[in-house]
Amino acid sequence: MRNPNMINVGAGKSITILGENFAPNAPGYVLQATTDYLLEAAYGLYKLTVTHDAIGTARCLTMCSYATWIAPTSIAFTAKNNDLPALRMLQAAMLLCADARTTLTTGPFPKRGHKLIRTNQTDVMIDSVLTLGLLPTRNRQDLHCIRQRMAASARLLNYTGDNVLKFIANQAGAPWDEIAAALADGWKVVA
Fold it and tell me: Mean pLDDT in the chain?
């Protein structure tokens, strides 16, 4: 079952840079570019100085965001409010998903009910106008570019309905096979 949110966007079949030819929509390339984007969203210019833990977190979020462009995927991530980089990556990953929701939980586990909050279409349109002036232009362009690349890459895959994370890992190769295995241990991952 393919995601209905995909539209015909993205780069062409191949790009040549400094004599090296590669496919910009290949899963491995898109996953790495998205991981780099999430790290930059959290750490800015210092994205190359982070630990393997931050890279692993970005890869988990990347794989799950990418998976939503292939098939409906239900995976929960939690970041504590004292871990700002994890929160930034989580928010950026959520915005990259074809379909996602965010949850605010006070305390370790909700003891009262769960309430879905939402605004109406008019409020969303007002926010869209406001956001144009509040978010730096480059962040909006990067987000749009990565979303388009993920959708274009997912369209190229012939998903048959198996485990979507394992399917992506088989298409992308290392290190994504390790990320899929880590996510398969439990569908609830704490960032």
Answer: 79
Domain span at 38: 21-104+119-185
Please report whether residue 11 resides in a domain.
no
Which residues have C-beta within 8 Å of that of residue 34, sequence separation ≥ 6? 62, 65, 66, 96, 146, 149, 150
66 occurs within a structural domain = yes
Which has the higher per-residue pLDDT, 50 or 124?
Answer: 50
> Is residue 36 in a domain?
yes
Per the structure, the count of domains in the chain is 1
Q: Tokens at residue 190, please? A: 């704490």
Number of neighbours of residue 176 by Cβ within 10 angstroms: 24
Q: How far apart are CA 190 and CA 20, in angstroms?
A: 38
**pLDDT number for residue 184:** 78
141-165 mean pLDDT: 88
CA distance 186 to 183: 6
State yes or no: pLDDT of 66 exceeds 50: yes
